[in-house]
Amino acid sequence: MTLTEINDHLPQADAEHTFADLGVIPEITEALEKLGIVNPFPIQSLAIPIAIAGTDMIGQARTGTGKTLAFGVSLLQRIAVPTDPAYAELKAPGLPQALVMCPTRELALQVTRDLADASTVRHARVLTVYGGVGYETQLDTLAAGVDVVVGTPGRLLDLVNRRSLDLSQVRVLVLDEADEMLDLGFLPDVERLIGKTPASRQTLLFSATMPAAIVALARMHLNQPVNVRAETHDSQLTVPDTTQFVYQAHDLDKPEIVGRILQSPACTRTMIFTRTKRAAQRLADELVDRGFKATSIHGDLNQVAREKALKKFREGKVSVLVATDVAARGIDITDVSHVINYECPDSEMTYVHRIGRTGRAGAKGTAVTLVDWADITRWKVINRALDLHFPELLETYSTSAHLYEDLEIPEGTRGRLVDAAPREHHKDSDGHHHKDGHHKDRHKDRPKRERSRRRLRNGEPVEGAPEATESAPAEPVESADAGETRPARNRRRRRRSGGSADSNS
Fold it and tell me: Which domains does the chain have, with CATH numbers?
């Protein structure tokens, strides 16, 4: 594999050049101008001319730097749509001419939206394919004809195996966030899908990092690629426009800390990350109870619920989104002001991906990480790997003055917008209130039970033995395990020599 490398810094959009200067056709530039997108970002300036020429490429840039349009614009320009004269000359009109593979459903949907926005004038037919939803709509759309398919590897391979998706006419193949697909274990599926595409295709690989497995994938499937890096070799992995704060905080105090951060005037839209699905849902419920407009997204939610939560967050109906790492991968919302790591990330790359949700596309952002005592060693590893200059963490509480000062929290702020809901009381049949559903004297009026008992010997009744009748005692003893009642017994306890009966108990 011959490799040409092009590097650039990562500043703001290039005000001196437009997309038209890069060779983008008028239909696409017009669509972008309607969205207010006129000047390209560095990764776009470097990648688009190369991709339009049909050259294989490896694009390496941090999250939130405009990678989607870097490959999306060139992809849309290189395919033929039904309104083009060249469309009739295709071998199999209606079969996909471009394939974009993404690690998550959310990223696939985001890429589809960006491609649709850039194609409002050309009217390319773009289909999103992912699991967790029914097949019918996807199958019907494929049968009607599509130009671009964007999807996750699992569902794509499923449709290929069903012979519902034909990749024999793919001209452009894009692997987006290749390192995340590696992390999620999709690489074998990716390689199988690549094998279903023509060898003459153009391949564009985009990745924030280049681990060995991704390098091997590129060497195997890319033909003399150009490596485009929209950053210098020694630049920080984290987004430079993001201000970072790291505090040592107690787990029980974290909800109060978060509640106070959310009331900073600078905090307009916030993403909060947790390690587990349960923690995400618990924190979201806690914030709602405190009066904040919050929702959650995690693996226990079905796809419809996840999309609904994202839509609310994107449209501003809720201002706080609590998410797990996997569920949040690929979410591209440009105006997230704050990212809060409610728990210390597992690795340095997880930290990079998390805080990359803010400070996107040249905007400013704030990232806050709360590290409890058990995760101090884990944080030191991350700090050393990313050279973040947070070796010693400041012990921080919800009342700490430096917390208010750092995050511009108004003085006197508390972590709750509404009073806590009162504990629910339950009424019994007599109208008495009892907390938590416990009822006193539930055995008080229970009728006595009577039963006859005969003496048996070897399973046979004993002749002449009188029948005994037992009555349950007036005051039964309640079993702690099963709620059963048993007769009270007087037990005599023998004292052991050398100590009382209660010793060692």
Answer: 4-229 (3.40.50.300), 242-406 (3.40.50.300)
